[in-house]
Amino acid sequence: MVLSDADILKELKAGRIIIEPLDSSALPDDAVQPASVDLRLGRKLRVFKQHTQGFIDVKQEMPHLTEMVEIDEVTPFYLHPGEFALGVTWERVGLPTDIVGRLDGKSSLGRLGLVVHSTAGFVDPGWQGCLTLELSNLSPLPITLYYGMKVSQISFMRLTSPAHHAYGSKKLGSKYQGQDEPVPSRYYLNYRRPKG
Fold first, then answer.
1. How many CA atoms lie within 13 A of 18 on its CB side?
2. 72 pLDDT exceeds 70?
3. How far apart are CA 22 and CA 77, in angstroms?
4. Alpha carbon distances (Å) from 76 to 79, 93, 112
5. Is the pLDDT of residue 194 over 70?
6. Spatial contact of 41 and 148, defined as CB atoms under 8 Å apart
7. Helix (H) or strand (E) holding 123
8. Which of 16, 78, 88, 128 is found 20 to 30 A from 166 (Cα to Cα)?
9. Per-residue pLDDT tens digits for 155-169
């Protein structure tokens, strides 16, 4: 069951769902929509340096595949047609073991061709940190991305029972718990774990 604005506010007040900071430009619950919470774009983006690599090998750590850039409220990042960049939400999000989140883009930006996630829309119970944004431009023109712009929204669903092994637990070997900036793929770690 998807949580309504009333239930989201209750969970925020109780400290079970954590979103820090909420939009402080108006009322504390200004970012709370009927069944979601608006999230803003953080300052750092990770962009691909395709001129340095001929391909991506998912079994290998590739530290030189991407580089970090910073944006602000005045000087935007131009996401060109067909380009892809990793970003994070300005807000840190924390979920209890019985609630999952769903990250989606803002409709008005989607109408301009901005895609906010390819596959990372699901936020596991137990997650703590800034959320990854997989930013793609499907339009024929560059799109400007500004620090602090409302770029995504998160909705919440209650599980039938708390998860036995929440994200971040030792058993899962969660790769991105606690991130506060765009972290490059750690998929290669799947090949370094003992089998069995």
1. 15
2. yes
3. 23
4. 9, 24, 16
5. no
6. yes
7. strand 122-123
8. 88
9. 999 999 999 988 888
